[in-house]
Structures are given as structure tokens and as C-alpha cells.
Design a protein that fits this description.
Blueprint: E1 2-8, E2 11-17, H1 22-42, H2 48-71, H3 92-104
Antiparallel strand pairs: 1-2
Helix pairs in contact: 1-2, 2-3
């Protein structure tokens, strides 16, 4: 296992990486860095931990959305008014709104 130095939102991390996986890891790091930078630059969230949670939720949502769209060409007409759900039946957008709401007060999840 190799160790690779990466930077996410200006902070350096040393990550373990299987031999031959460097390109895939660098793509993932770039995607996380872009998402976190977008959230930070929007100006509403300053705490790095909150930015990381929101970025993780956004990326998970995008992945679930992509998986859902590859399974079905489009939503059934009867389901069009319902919120999108992931494979476990969770309303990810609602979850993101709830996390945002919970973190608005003091910036701490617990």
C-alpha cells in the first residue's frame, strides 16, 4: 500500500492507496475538494466539519441520484410529486435540510 499526500480545502492529508489506485484516489480527492470549496465559497457555512458533512451528503445524493437514473429512465407519473429516495428509501434532500437546520444554531451537530 502506497501513501499519497493530498490537499482538500487547503489542508494536507496522507492517505493510504493500493498500488495502481492513485488515479482513482486523485479523482475522488478532486471531487471532494471541489464540493467542499463550492460550499465554503457560498459563504453560509464556515466550520470545516459542517462543510465536510454537507459535502459528503451532496456527493452521496449525487451518487444515489445517478444510480436511480441508470435503473429507470424516469420517474413513474404517479411518483412525480414525491421526494426522490435513495435505495434504502431515505429522503436525502430532506435529510440535508434537517442537517442544515440542526447546524444553524451553534455550528455543532451534538
Amino acid at each position: 500500500m502506497k501513501q499519497i499526500e493530498v490537499s482538500i480545502l487547503g489542508q494536507v492529508y496522507i492517505l493510504g492507496c493500493p498500488t495502481g489506485g492513485e488515479s482513482l484516489l486523485n479523482q475522488a480527492v478532486a471531487q471532494v475538494d471541489r464540493e467542499m470549496t463550492t460550499i465554503r465559497d457560498a459563504g453560509k457555512v464556515k466550520a470545516r466539519e459542517r462543510i465536510a458533512v454537507l459535502a459528503a451528503l451532496n456527493l452521496a445524493w449525487q451518487q444515489a441520484e445517478g444510480a436511480a437514473s441508470s435503473v429507470a429512465a424516469g420517474p413513474a407519473p404517479a411518483l412525480a410529486a414525491t421526494p426522490p429516495l435513495d435505495s434504502t428509501g431515505l429522503d436525502i434532500a430532506g435529510l440535508i435540510r434537517r442537517v442544515d437546520s440542526a447546524l444553524e444554531g451553534d455550528g455543532q451537530l451534538l
